């Protein structure tokens, strides 16, 4: 670590010198401009990349590449922060182009800008500052909760169309999760916090951690919707009433955990964790009651739904724990 003495010039301006070795390493010369970004914790971020930021390009040979492998390669390049992804081969197959379009739909920002028989170019058009992490996490939460609510409704009413709609909404949650993961990786590589006026790097880390259980909550809502799409006859009325009550209780815990996260509310977070533990007996009692049903098919489907609801409760507890970790910074 080097230190620099702060000096005053012009009566009102404070100046420090930049380490020569660092300046030469990053290509700073006399007369160049650097950006200075104030962080919430009082630090200053000096960025040597000012004008005409170089475009990070990744070239991927897709010759003989299967659909799943191609999808994984594109997503990996996206998460690594490449602005331009060039996919090439002697001839790109129609099936491969369909996979490329499908993957671009799953990601926020990338668009196909060039296409030929042997090359497809994907360009990331998103400005990271357009979607601060807090808004991204909030959006994930709202979609996941609506999915959970509608999935149970589809199960109750045997609404296969609604179940399909819930399942498709999971794609939007996945897109937001991948974007947040990409932004956080950029920060770790020295890219700076996109929304530094509102979020410091410690908070950014905790919100990134919270995005993971929210993505999994959406996955479990999708599982419930998939179960609903297989249901052919109504569920026993009394069992369904108890199932709705259990779902409403878990939904409230998810909402409280996210509220505790955004408000750094330790008391509410601990309340959520304690409630989740107490609800285990309720879920188990409902699971036992389904064993008395005559239809083995409905019994199995109900068991899957109750299991997903229990996992959603555990995930809300995970978010609450993250809220407690975040709150420690304010104490």
How would you describe what is shown here?
The protein is of the alpha+beta class. The chain has helices at 20-26, 67-79, 94-106, 133-157, 160-188, 201-228, 237-263, 266-290, 296-327, and strands at residues 7-9, 13-15, 35-38, 44-47, 57-61, 84-88, 110-115, 119-124. The strands form 3 sheets. The chain has a 4-stranded mixed β-sheet with strand order 5-6-8-7, covered by helices on one side. It has a two-stranded antiparallel sheet with strand order 1-2. Helix 6 packs antiparallel against helix 9 (296-327) and helix 7 runs antiparallel to helix 8 (266-290).
Task: Jot down its keywords.
alpha+beta, 331 residues, flat, single chain, two-stranded antiparallel ribbon, 8 strands
How do you describe this structure in short?
By secondary structure, the protein is of the alpha+beta class. It is built from nine helices and eight strands.
Layout of strands and helices, then pairs:
Elements: E1 7-9, E2 13-15, H1 20-26, E3 35-38, E4 44-47, E5 57-61, H2 67-79, E6 84-88, H3 94-106, E7 110-115, E8 119-124, H4 133-157, H5 160-188, H6 201-228, H7 237-263, H8 266-290, H9 296-327
Parallel strand pairs: 5-6
Antiparallel strand pairs: 1-2, 3-4, 6-8, 7-8
